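Postdoc handover notes: sequence design on the structure in folder B. Input tokens:
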């Protein structure tokens, strides 16, 4: 038989109203009392009735996330940090994944049917056309802007364009005439942002834009295939790779072809996966602060949900360049 709020209140020695405040993340509860109630909730395995709570408060205390169901490091880490940020704010987490060829609107509609107070668009697959949605709840995008026929929306997240510019500028600052790029799949927002940032950095520096390597699928195998192509070109001295896994494949291809890294070719990745610091050579990469991105997105969305002023811009950077041994000055001979 399901545990009731009355039983939780009795076991914790508080009123039902206090239990309700804790469950709904409301203020005016001391830390000691909140911790005691949460401990009893865990011990008794109490599950609040979301439907009843929604009728009472006009809200579900649940946030939906639209993402691609994947084990890739970046998206999966971001999902974990989003869920933790929502839990800290007193909201539960609901996930809807987009599949190849499926419109993002299908995942959004599935979340709306479940009952959510707001939606985060994390890294859905799309066809590259402007995203238009009908949603009667606030929507925060971690990538591109969204045209909403109802509700309110905002773009909050790491600036992948700026991060790609920083990575490309680092290679140019080492004296490389230009920088080649191994792109990710262009039905991902992140891949398009990184491609755009690379192009902007080259244009700003007056550097020639070389042809793109074969578009990858984020895997080491794709990076290896593209790396084999670039290794055959003598004028390739610097490569910005759209993620670390593909950079690992490219490093393999360059080494196999007898092109030393960084003496012959400098390589930069993106994500700073745990293995990046332990490669040979250790990989220069763009590190994403997933916790900062998730906290900012959730804070902003909850402010929209609850009608509060938008939070101040964070001072902690969402991305930063981590320089290691895979990049170096261009050879002068």
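Designed sequence:
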């Amino acid at each position: 038989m399901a545990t009731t709020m009355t039983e939780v209140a009795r076991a914790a020695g508080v009123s039902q109203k206090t239990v309700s405040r804790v469950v709904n993340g409301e203020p005016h509860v001391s830390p000691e009392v909140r911790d005691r109630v949460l401990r009893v909730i865990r011990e008794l395995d109490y599950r609040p009735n979301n439907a009843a709570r929604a009728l009472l408060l006009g809200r579900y205390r649940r946030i939906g996330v639209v993402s691609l169901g994947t084990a890739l490091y970046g998206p999966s880490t971001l999902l974990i940090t989003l869920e933790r940020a929502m839990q800290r704010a007193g909201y539960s987490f609901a996930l809807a994944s987009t599949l190849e060829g499926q419109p993002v609107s299908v995942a959004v509609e599935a979340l709306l049917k479940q009952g959510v107070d707001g939606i985060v668009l994390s890294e859905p697959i799309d066809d590259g056309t402007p995203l238009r949605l009908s949603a009667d709840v606030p929507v925060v995008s971690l990538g591109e802007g969204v045209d909403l026929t109802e509700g309110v929306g905002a773009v909050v997240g790491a600036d992948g364009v700026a991060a790609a510019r920083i990575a490309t500028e680092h290679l140019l600052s080492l004296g490389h005439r230009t920088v080649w790029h191994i792109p990710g799949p262009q039905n991902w927002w992140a891949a398009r942002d990184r491609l755009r940032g690379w192009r902007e950095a080259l244009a700003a520096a007056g550097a020639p834009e070389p042809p793109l390597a074969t578009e990858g699928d984020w895997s080491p195998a794709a990076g290896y295939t593209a790396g084999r192509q670039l290794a055959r070109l003598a004028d390739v001295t610097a490569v910005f790779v759209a993620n670390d896994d593909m950079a690992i494949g490219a490093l393999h291809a360059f080494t196999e072809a007898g092109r030393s890294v960084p003496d012959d070719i400098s390589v930069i990745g993106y994500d700073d996966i745990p293995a990046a610091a332990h490669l040979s050579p250790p990989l220069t990469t763009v590190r994403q602060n997933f916790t900062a991105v998730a906290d900012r997105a959730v804070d902003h969305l909850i402010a929209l949900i609850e009608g509060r002023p938008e939070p101040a811009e964070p001072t902690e950077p969402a991305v930063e360049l981590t320089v290691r041994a895979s990049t170096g000055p261009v050879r002068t001979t």
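Context for whoever picks this up: The longest strand covers residues 62-67. Don't rerun without checking with the PI first.
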